[in-house]
Amino acid sequence: MRHLLGIDDLGPEGITDVLGLAESFLEVTRRDIPKVPALRGKTVVSMFYEDSTRTRLSFETAAKRLSADTMTFSAGSSSLRKGESLLDTVRTVEAMGIDAIVVRHRSSGVPQRISGWIDASVVNAGDGWHEHPTQALLDAFTLRRRRGPSFAGMRVTIVGDIKHSRVARSNVKALAALGAEMTLVGPPTLMPPDLARISGPSRSASWPVTVSYDLDEVLPTTDVLYVLRIQMERQSEALFPSLREYAARYGITCERLARLPADALVMHPGPTNRGVEIAADAADDPRSVINEQVSNGVAVRMAVLYQLLGTGGQVALGGAA
Amino acid sequence: MTDLVVKGGTVLDAGGERRADVLVRDGVVAEVAEGLDAGRTLDAAGCIVAPGLVDLHAHLREPGMEDAEDISTGARAAALGGYTAVVAMPNTDPPIDTAAVVQQIVRAGRDAACHVAVSGCITKGRRGAELAPLGELFDLGVRIFTDDGTCVADAGLMRRALEYARALPGAVLAQHCEDPALARGGHMNEGTWSSWLGIPGMPAEAESVVVARDIALVGLTGGRVHFLHLSSAASVELVRAAKARGLAVTAEAAPHHFTLTDSLCCSYDPVFKVNPPLRTDRDVEAVKEGLADGTIDAIATDHAPHPPQEKERPFDEAPPGMLGLETALALTLSELVVPGLLDMARALALLSWQPARLAGLSGHGGPVAPGRPAHLCVIDPEAVWEVDPTRLASRSRNTPYAGRKLTGRVRHTLLGGEPVVLDGKAQR
């Protein structure tokens, strides 16, 4: 496996391999000296055209725990000057002698394009609305640690702005590939155009999901509630009348959490907008695994970097290359 | 100029098909018969000798964007594609909304490898607010008026333009159908692919609502409208119904809209980004049917060169547009004639004499007959060639067909009797 551009680069076996590896690396991160020499001598560059402190730090920590050298370019710093073309920037960076680029960009498809321009491995840390594969992997890992290795029959509901969510797309691909039953909930205006025409609740012909516009109806049969962030700017695009109305119809409140089965889990990719997609008191519900998601991120990213750059890692190639 | 004879081919024009040689003298066709000879011979054995193709829609980028293309390179590309006339679109910088710019382009076109007809804007600066000096431009020979690149979105203004143009005999208002509110923020066709790829989409309805509106305005005003680059099944259906009602509506389609679909955007390569966007299989089928049954009157390239650095940007940042002049004929032959959807005569009608008539270019589009200007193209319908972006005459490289094998190639192109393309090589 040369790149991780999206979940399809892995396939079900590939995902399972990464999750298994992540288990070992989780153990590493808990040692007194949480470091292994697996990627010693390798250089991993983060190019974050979109700001994201936590994901960037998570990747850099993962690289360092594997003894790789790291370099960082982030938006707003003079190292990513506006006007220098993407092509020139990545070629310049590659010329410095690097093994992998971890890239986040506001435009869908950028990691894929970059992979065609350079020899180094490319890891997608989030491209536009398209995919955020390591997020889905750490989410799957979190669920696996809580529920065991089988996802068959697990009922996962993702609620929120699916249309603009790379986290949703990657999670749909990853969890459905592992056997989970996926339901997407939100207002029709925040569904991808393809799904917005469905009269909910019903199965989509093109995505492996059921679509519903009624959150309360879906909650009692939800094993995992995955809550997406609502971006404040979306209100100005006539996608919903107001944040208040969104919160009333789709916000996660304590009342709504009470409708979930007692052993359900609540997840969120972070950062949360308390009071919008999740009420302040609801965010601290004991069924929330949000903090575990964050701490599992480093181990999962170590697994991904190891798969790409470590020698001797055998990977099952699944799906389209 | 020496006499020359185009020898050994089959002449095909609006009047039919016949085995004949074509004798050219002093820039005009002197004789069309078998067994002709002259001082100079152009071999047309196995070829079709047709009136030169006419493109209603090409962006030659001069003035203002000459790093992508200019009149000289664009005309050369056209001639290599079999075109003897091209209508230059007015979204230049400055736009073609004044006499001065018209004259500049006419001058630049004088030595070009094809005739460059100048189109004019419908509104000043293409800003969609005030009428451009349509009459003044008309007096300079402009016949096609369009804000192409942008839609005339104000229905009231489009109505006035349609009414006013009725006093300009032969003037055609050509609309780029794209409702700005419905298309806003979109970079590809809205549908299954855009949903998965995470790229904001433009629904087909952004095009068809304007088609429907302008058909209604034609009914209201008694004017005539020509629809540029139709891309969707809904639009084709609306035009079919409007023609059935006898309304003065015409339409064109670009080769990429009958050969490519939005699935290609999965590579995120902006070479596949175009406006109107590539759409679904169903839309492609509808465009093909429209070409076959007369709903669509012309194939027009919408040749839109962009320099490489522009098309190397992220998909949503790259400008839309594809090259088209050198591949249109071959795509028509490969995808429509060879599979039997069109015969050669209908293909040439769509590429040559129908667009010539729409553009008011009476010297182009044939017939191939004594006294007519010798604007001809000699087509080898069996030649197979591979599209190589580095070997195109255009200054730009943004063709979506790189590496594709096509059937049909221009061997010679004559402009006013002079070979501007000889054995597939540009002479000008």
**Which strand order does the major sheet of chain B show?**
3-2-7-18-19-20-21
Compute the separation of the termini of chain B in Å: 16 Å
Strand count, sense and barrel status of the largest sheet of chain A are: 6 strands, mixed
* Structural classification of chain B: alpha/beta
Percent helix of chain B, as a range, is 25-40%
Low-confidence stretches of chain B: none
Stretches with pLDDT under 50, minimum 5 residues of chain A: 313-321
**Gap between N and C termini of chain A:** 9 Å
Chain-wise SSE layout:
The complex is a heterodimer of chains A (321) and B (428).
Chain A: H1 11-29, E1 43-48, H2 53-65, E2 69-74, H3 86-95, E3 100-105, H4 110-115, E4 121-127, H5 133-147, E5 155-159, H6 166-178, E6 181-185, H7 193-196, E7 202-203, E8 209-212, H8 215-218, E9 224-227, H9 243-250, H10 254-259, E10 265-267, H11 290-309
Parallel strand pairs in A: 1-2, 1-3, 3-4, 5-6, 5-9, 6-8, 9-10
Antiparallel strand pairs in A: 7-8
Chain B: E1 4-7, E2 10-13, E3 16-19, E4 21-25, E5 28-33, E6 40-43, E7 48-51, E8 53-58, H1 71-80, E9 83-88, H2 99-109, E10 115-118, H3 134-139, E11 144-146, H4 155-165, E12 172-175, H5 180-183, E13 188-189, H6 192-197, E14 201-202, H7 205-221, E15 225-227, H8 233-244, E16 249-253, H9 256-259, H10 281-293, E17 298-299, H11 308-311, H12 328-337, H13 344-358, E18 376-386, E19 405-415, E20 418-422, E21 425-426
Parallel strand pairs in B: 1-6, 2-7, 8-9, 9-10, 11-12, 12-15, 13-14, 15-16, 16-17
Antiparallel strand pairs in B: 1-4, 2-3, 4-5, 7-18, 18-19, 19-20, 20-21
